[in-house]
Write a structure and sequence with these properties.
Region (Disordered): 1-42
Oligomer: single chain
Distance between the termini: 146 Å
Membrane topology: Multi-pass membrane protein
Number of strands: 32
Keywords: Cell membrane, Hydrolase, Membrane, Transmembrane, Transmembrane helix
Number of helices: 25
Domain PPM-type phosphatase: 562-784
Subcellular location: Cell membrane
Radius of gyration: 56 Å
Length: 927
């Protein structure tokens, strides 16, 4: 339309004046002159008539082609179906078990005629014939044909199965011929089956009327469609005449050349048909560009490729000289008379530059956001430095190096000596920089690194080849760096709280542009965020080390010597820090041993301090030789007092310890008696000498600090060689499994009769715990031993002072058997004093027990709860010096209370006689 308007401008008639119609239903635009009538839309030269004629021809051709194709396809399908059905019926009958046998009968016709009729009716075919090897019909669906000779069956007599279209008598048919073979694979007859040709086309004859009806309907629809198209063309032209159309084209032409967007119309042959003024300006087209091929216009390669290929693109940016043009192309079809291409161009040079700067800024903001998310994910100094390098590589720099002060790496406060650092992280490929772990020294005062440290801000070196000071520090190393392609640097000091922690260097290599001032701001922001994360990790490392040191100091370092149990232990802190799990092995009088395992809920310094307080309390209460339930009762009262808030402002960091659990066990090697009491703690595992594992059903009391509930005890008698496995819940319970599954795994790991306590600990640590457990674990494994019965002596003493000498004589005899004559005097003195006090001040029954182990223990029990008290008797007192003598001759002595009274015990070391203080003895005996 546009091109035509330029050619018809000189021939255009003057527009006629006329009033526009006031009818609102009509579209705005020029109206035809009054008195003119549009030609009839059905005239012989109109477009409507031509479209109608063309559509009629197309419909007739399509109907004829469809009918022909249907006939051919129908005949082909019918013939193919008839062959398959005939072959299936003939093969089924020929291969039937009785067919071959019938040929050997005296009268084959009698045996075959009925099956032939039945098979023909069941298969839905026209005929089945059974022939002998001479081609004579023995049975046929047409009985009148029996005895006649069939044609062209010699191939079947020779053993070949085939199908063909038979022409001849009795009727033309599509048939299948199948030989009949006996058991020895010899042809004894032939079966033919088929469908008559006239029946094959029966279906086609039914479809022809349908095709003709469809053709008539299509022709009617084409006529109606043509009428609608003609009516629509009449409405769209509004009855305009040549003058009105010319004026409309001139208006379009004026608009085309006035817009600030270039427009090209290219024909189907690639020649330029039209270019407006803006297109000529943007593309620098020559004056004679019209009708020239687009490849001859000197356009940019990308633009030429789009116009020649006729591609449809939207806002594709192509360079044109020093400009960037946004190109949109659309095909003229179906809007024009001939195929072609319409291309429009917009100058986006300034917009592209602005969007490029916005894209760069957006990328930098994205980088800083990712840095805030990815840097400092762990409280590890080295890992934080590696995260800084990982974030910056390929987004800001090609290679990133991070150096930190030695003090920072060890969690200490950074010192003022900042010119010696350790390379901690290195990220990037193909570079000759020093590896991780090397010591980096800044010895030249004017290098970019030293300048950055001195100024406290980033230093940009856009071209390293021109940086003489940097090359002077290490000329050989600098040469290798430059040879590898690295050419630009930003050095940023890592500062937090006004103190330098280290240095990060951003390097760019071959293929990347130089660093600019905008990159310095991003590098400084990255360094500031990383410095805060590194300082947090350093402070955490220091505090963690302090907490671990405190916790280790609160846990037992070495187990005490004792003969009742063979003990091994393990402690594994949690990954997140120190915890409140603890254990202890406490020797008790009479060769008994107390085993303790406890757990304070939570982690950190508070849990470790609470654990230390509880362990100290257990040690103190154990020195009183209390039963397990009484000890836990005292411990519960202590925890309750600790949980009571003190007067004063609340700082939010109270020392509440509610949630602590404890298991307290006392093992007596004389008889293997074991007494348990537990406060909210998991029950121990007991492994007998043959490897059977049980979890005894012991009374369970609430955790420490709950109060209001009495503690109960449970008792077991363990054979020698049994193993007690005491543990905290972190061993059997975590996020991956519940406690029942953990107990099953524990039982499987310790169910070995020959395992020592040390091997049991090792097996449990390897089987039950991951490399970094989420909760701390305390494990205590003890294998029981029994005191030799020959080393135990017991005497029941009558409640009479005269019995003291008799028992003393018996004890002396037993000491002689034990070859302890050197200890006889001291033992007799101790026994005399204790036994005399028990008879004089106690209550029956009175019993004496001597135990021999690594020491010699003398125990005197009576039925009274009165506790003796050591004191210094005055010179005028007649008594009160017995316990003083006991304390002088015994290494240790004390009292413990039992259910039916008390036991006073004294312990002496073997191999040496006690040496009491002579002055003290004389002073006490001076009366």
């Amino acid at each position: 339309m546009i091109g035509r308007s330029r050619r018809s401008r000189s021939k255009a008639a003057a527009p006629r004046d006329g009033r526009r119609s006031a009818d609102p239903s009509r579209r705005p635009g020029p109206r035809r002159p009054p008195g003119r009538r549009l030609p009839s839309p059905w005239g012989p030269g109109t477009l409507a008539a031509q479209v109608f004629l063309l559509q009629v021809i197309v419909v007739l051709v399509l109907v004829a082609a469809a009918a022909t194709a249907l006939v051919l396809q129908g005949r082909y399908d019918g013939d193919n179906d008839a062959r398959k059905r005939s072959l299936a019926a003939a093969e089924a009958f020929a291969h039937a078990p009785g067919t071959a046998l019938a040929f050997a009968a005296p009268d084959p016709t009698k045996l075959l005629q009925t099956p032939v009729m039945q098979a023909q009716a069941g298969a839905g075919i026209d005929f089945i014939s059974v022939l002998n090897t001479k081609g004579v019909r023995l049975a046929d669906t047409e009985p009148r044909l029996i005895g006649t000779r069939a044609q062209d069956v010699s191939r079947a007599v020779a053993g070949e199965t085939f199908t063909d279209t038979f022409h001849g008598k009795p009727a033309d048919a599509v048939r299948a011929v199948v030989p009949v073979m006996d058991a020895s694979r010899r042809v004894v007859g032939v079966v033919t089956a088929g469908i008559q040709v006239e029946n094959v086309g029966y279906l086609l004859d039914q479809q022809v009327p349908m095709v003709l009806g469809s053709a008539a309907l299509a022709l009617a629809l084409a006529t109606a469609g043509t009428a609608l198209v003609s009516r629509r063309l009449q409405r769209q032209t509004h009855g305009l005449g040549p003058a009105e159309m010319t004026r409309m084209y001139e208006h379009h032409d004026a608009v085309l050349h006035a817009v600030r967007e270039g427009v090209l119309i290219v024909g189907a042959d690639g020649r330029l048909l039209l270019a407006n003024d803006e297109a000529r300006r943007l593309l620098l087209l020559p004056p004679d560009a019209d009708q020239r091929h687009v490849t001859e216009l000197g356009l940019a390669p990308d633009l030429t490729r789009i116009l020649v290929a006729g591609e449809v693109v939207s806002d594709e940016v192509c360079p044109a000289g020093d400009r960037l043009l946004a190109v949109n192309t659309r095909r003229t079809a179906p809007y024009g008379d001939a195929p072609g291409l319409v291309a429009s161009f917009r100058d986006t040079t300034e917009l592209r530059a602005l969007s490029g700067r916005a894209e760069t800024a957006r990328g930098r903001l994205t980088l800083l956001y990712e840095a805030g998310v990815r840097i400092g994910t762990t409280l590890d100094v080295r890992r934080t430095a590696e995260e800084l390098a990982e974030v910056a590589v390929d987004r800001l720099a090609d290679v990133v190096t991070v150096e930190l002060l030695e003090a920072v790496l060890h969690g200490e406060e950074p010192t003022g000596a900042v010119h010696r650092m350790r390379r901690t992280a290195l990220r990037g490929s193909r570079h000759p920089l020093q590896p991780v772990g090397d010591l980096i020294q800044f010895v030249v005062a004017d290098t970019p690194m030293v300048a950055a440290l001195r100024q406290g801000r980033a230093v940009l070196v856009p071209d390293l080849r021109a940086a003489e000071d940097w090359r002077a520090q290490d000329p050989e190393g600098a040469g290798r760096v430059l040879d590898s392609g690295i050419h630009s640097l930003i050095a940023v000091p890592l500062r937090a709280r006004g103190v330098v922690l280290g240095m990060v260097n951003f390097w760019r290599g071959a293929g990347s542009p130089r660093f600019e001032e905008e990159d310095v701001a991003v590098a400084e922001e990255l360094g500031a965020r990383a410095a805060v994360a590194i300082d947090n990790a350093r402070r955490y490392s220091r505090e963690h080390a302090m907490a671990v040191t405190l916790q280790r100091s609160l846990l037992p370092r070495d187990l005490p010597e004792q003969d009742a149990l063979e003990v091994a232990w393990r402690y594994r802190p949690a990954q997140s820090g120190v915890g409140g799990d603890w254990f202890d092995v406490i020797p008790l009088p009479g060769f008994r041993t107390a085993l303790v395992v406890g757990d304070v809920v939570g982690h950190g310094l508070h849990a470790a301090v609470t654990m230390g307080r509880l362990r100290t309390a257990v040690l103190n209460f154990s020195s009183l030789d209390l039963p397990p339930d009484e000890l836990l009762g005292h411990l519960d009262e202590m925890v309750a007092r600790l949980d009571t808030p003190a007067d004063g402002p609340d700082d939010g960091e109270g020392s509440l310890v509610t949630g602590a659990t404890c298991l307290y066990v006392i093992y007596d090697p004389v008889g293997g008696h074991c007494t348990f009491s537990r406060a909210g703690h998991v029950a121990p595992a007991v492994v007998d000498p043959v490897g059977r594992v049980t979890f005894p059903d012991l009374p369970l009391s609430p955790p420490l600090g709950v109060g209001g509930h009495p503690f109960e005890t449970g008792e077991l008698t363990l054979p020698e060689g049994s193993r007690l496995v005491l543990f905290t819940d972190g061993l059997v319970e975590d996020r991956r499994r519940d406690i029942d599954e953990g107990l099953s795994l524990l039982a499987a790991a310790v169910a070995h009769p020959d395992q020592s306590p040390e091997e049991t600990c090792r097996a449990l640590m390897e089987t039950m715990l991951p490399e970094h457990p989420s909760d701390d674990v305390a494990l205590l494994v003890a294998r029981t031993r029994l005191l030799d019965p020959s080393h135990v002596a017991v005497w029941d003493v009558p409640f009479d002072v005269s019995a003291v000498s008799r028992v003393r004589t018996q004890v002396s005899g037993r000491l002689a058997e034990w070859r302890l004559e050197d200890s006889a005097f001291a033992t007799e003195l101790i026994l005399s004093e204790l036994l005399t006090n028990a008879i004089r001040y106690g209550a029956p029954p009175v019993r004496v027990r001597m135990l021999l182990g690594r020491t010699l223990v003398c125990e005197v029990s009576d039925g009274s709860n009165t506790s003796p008290r050591l004191r210094r008797a005055a010179t005028t007192d007649e008594g009160g010096r017995g316990l003083f003598l006991v304390s002088q001759f015994a290494d240790r002595w004390g009292t413990r209370y039992v259910a039916d009274g008390k036991v006073i015990w004294a312990e002496q070391s073997l191999g040496r006689a006690p040496e009491p203080d002579p002055a003290a003895l004389i002073d006490q005996l001076a009366w």
